[in-house]
Amino acid sequence: MEEIFFYFLENMALLIAMMYLGLKAREYILPKLASSKKAPILNGVLTGFLAFAIMYNPLLYEGMRLDLREVPLYFIAFIGGWVPGIIAMIIPLIYRIVLEGPTVWLGVTQAIVLPVVIGSLFHDRKNYRPPFNLVKIPRLMIGLAVFEVIKSIWMVITTPATASMGIVMSLMAAIGVLALGWIVNDTHRNIIRWKTLEHDSTHDALTGLPNLRYFHERVRELKYRGVPMAIVMMDVDNFKNYNDTHGHPAGDGVLRTIGRLMEKAARPEDIIARYGGEEFILCFTGVRGEQQAFDLADALRQRVESYAFYGGDQQPGGRLTVSLGAGISEPEQPLDELIERADRALYQSKKAGRNQVTVATTSEVELQSEREYQVNA
User: Which of 70, 148, 278, 370 is catalytic?
Assistant: First the structure.
């Protein structure tokens, strides 16, 4: 019995070490793959290799090959459900059949198929939130208890294994599964905290849009790579009047709504952010001409103008609108200078009556005599 106990301790050490390394590899080496639709397949294959590694050096007892292969198989099925569970079975199942022996099919059904079936049945599909799902430890252990009771009784009836051996195996499996659950939860909580802090440091709390710091970092990187672009400054027209009439909570709702409209209008490669107050800033990438910049900015203006904001009919003109100013990026031009040019174009839109788009000319010499592209309300 002592030999069995220390053998299973070695199995648990291998389980814990491989699980920890797998989680770290997923976090630092394959983060995108871990969040993709292929993740269940990858998780199943890696778990299958782990079960195979545990089976490779078993404890032989009266023709039986004893190990804790059921621990990773049950765990992956409990976490991910049928797909990774079934995939995880393939390698250990083939390996066990190739080894043959008098208890081959009992070993396959009791320690490979059964843990996947029980784990999948206890999988909490409704609350499954990959890739950083938190394990519900009580549910995990209840499912394992069901599996161990079935397996132990079945094993004692059909194999030379004793009841005391079944109890020891169940105890060690419980410790192994519990350790895996704690490791996963601890790792995932740390990742969630880190991602939350990272998001909060780069995004505006009110609108959820990226903040100005994040915007500057991304756009400077694009300018360094020579990506053609236009910077657009946008300001909510008569926003003070709206706040005074409907209150600041309603004004905050307007800013959040405009943020969502900007996200819908932006293309995947564009960058948007809240500049501050009722001002927003956009970077339209791939823009090489004034007309293209105007068309993109005016499409956003129209999207905002056509939206039925609460209390918008009480604004001047009977609608809540925005004014925009755009500047086309030039080679070697500092970002701050480009933003200033867009801001001056925005001022021209406000000065000319609001609810308009003004595009600054691309020549710095002609900056003071900007040509305006305007659409009257």
Answer: 278
Using CA atoms, how far residue 297 sits from 49, 93, 126, 230, 326, in Å, is 54, 60, 42, 10, 8
Please give the order of strands across the beta sheet that includes 271-276.
271-276, 279-285, 229-236, 322-328, 357-359
pLDDT in tens, 11-31: 778 888 888 787 777 767 666
Question: Catalytic: 3?
Answer: no
Classified as helix, coil or strand, 230 is strand
Per DSSP, helices labelled H in 29-113 are: 31-34, 39-56, 70-80, 82-99, 104-108
- Return d(Cα 151, Cα 284) in angstroms, integer: 62
pTM higher than the cut 0.85: no
pLDDT digits (tens, 9 = 90+) for 249-269: 999 999 999 999 999 999 989
Distance CA 82, CA 71 (A): 16
Strands 64-66, 59-61: pairing kind: antiparallel
Residue 29, CA distances (Å) to 137, 158, 271, 303 in order:
27, 45, 26, 41
Using an 8 Å Cβ cutoff, are 321 and 237 in contact?
A: yes
